[in-house]
Amino acid sequence: MRPENTSTDPRLQAVTVLARVEANSAHAARLLGGATPAERELVMGTLRWQLTLDRLLERHLRTPIAALDIRVRAVLRVGLYEARRMRTPAPVAVAEAVRLAKAVAPRATGLVNAVLRRAVGETWPGASDAAVPLSVRYSHPAWLVERWRGLLGEQVTEDALAADQEAAPLYLLSAVSALDELTAAGCILRPHPTVSGVVAVEAGVEAAVAALRAGRAYAMDPTAVAVARVLPEVDGTVMDLAAAPGGKSLVLASERPGGRFLASDRHFGRTVLMRRNLALAGRPLALMVADAAASPLRPASCQLVVLDAPCSGTGTLRRHPEIRWRLRPGDLAELSATQRTLAAAASELLAPGGVLLYATCSLEPEENSEVVAPLPFEALPLTARLPDKLSWIELPSGGAVIPPSANGDGFTVHLLRKRT
Ligand SMILES: C[S@@+](CC[C@H](N)C(=O)[O-])C[C@H]1O[C@@H](n2cnc3c(N)ncnc32)[C@H](O)[C@@H]1O
Fold this sequence. Notes:
By secondary structure, the chain is of the alpha/beta class. The chain has helices spanning 10-24, 28-31, 37-48, 50-58, 70-85, 90-104, 109-119, 134-137, 142-152, 154-164, 179-184, 205-213, 222-228, 247-255, 268-278, 323-326, 331-349, 369-372, and strands at residues 170-173, 188-191, 198-203, 237-240, 260-265, 286-289, 302-308, 350-360, 377-379, 393-394, 400-402, 411-418. The protein contains 18 helices and 12 strands. The relative contact order is 0.09. The model has no long low-confidence stretch (mean pLDDT 95). It binds S-adenosylmethionine. S-adenosylmethionine binds at residues 224, 242-248, 265-267, 270, 291-293, 308, 310, 342.
């Protein structure tokens, strides 16, 4: 939902959104529905570069930035982001930040003016400046960078961090999107280089967003499409257990002639949204509101189960930059416990010899290989099932971790056959 502030000033809107993201753990992308491109850039860019901005600001602050009022922090970050990462001349960005401070935190006007005037002249750390830690160069928490180094190695980690710092294009699933209509409306669509059946909207995003709202197109990340496609073809029952908003189900239902498709999700509102999305597939699919841990289906009644589990989302930081500032290392154990419960329930639903697709848009082992390890399954090879040019790393568990890149979000996927 948009903030109550009805101003058309993108800077004021951005500060209001950023304060809500921080104070209420709100999702930035959700608050930006209907936002102007300028407001979106100010919010997402500031969130992406928050750590780098804070380091430069703190050189001119007497206290850590975390000790300041939330709105003052937001004004300082937005002002420095605009001065250093957008085309606004620095004096204009500073003057605008001072004007904002007068509106939202009048007592901090002097501080904002003094700090920003100096901070805009600081050197921005270069991408290859080895004297500056990766976490500051690419604005990610140090603990996450250290994990990824261990998991992905130095170069892949740096590439993933760099990818997280760029805005993700809008991608559409071709088979269920009215592409001719969009082209006629002026959209320029570019086929994805690695994942077939996906196009990036290069121009005419407004028309594409209007088509999405009208239920004439479906937006989906290319890696998520590739992950759905690793499933083998079957004739029996296919159950998608945490299915909303329906992307993986849509790919399967629109591309697989065989199989009886069922899907469920715990959240009623998301299943309502999913029902509308599924209409695009033009194929019946039974949809239930159900907790995956207590599915109404009989044990051993499915040949294929998809569990695209709720997760930390560390593969989606370019779309959801605030996740990196909110997530704590300790959260992973809690997420892992939920995922283990859901994976065990998924296992119950499978007939012996049946196949489980377990995936998350997280790169973290606690949410992936450690979840599937105790299950009575053997891993199926993924080499021939993932697109040729997609980069991924094989895990000792037999799964694949797909790092975030300019071409798609990060995911971890396991394809597992239940032992007979
Ligand atoms: C990663 S999303 C699934 C995305 C979906 N597969 C797609 O491709 O569009 C995870 C989903 O799990 C659902 N969820 C969370 N806990 C659940 C539970 N205990 N049982 C069923 N669904 C659950 C959430 O509502 C959310 O829709």
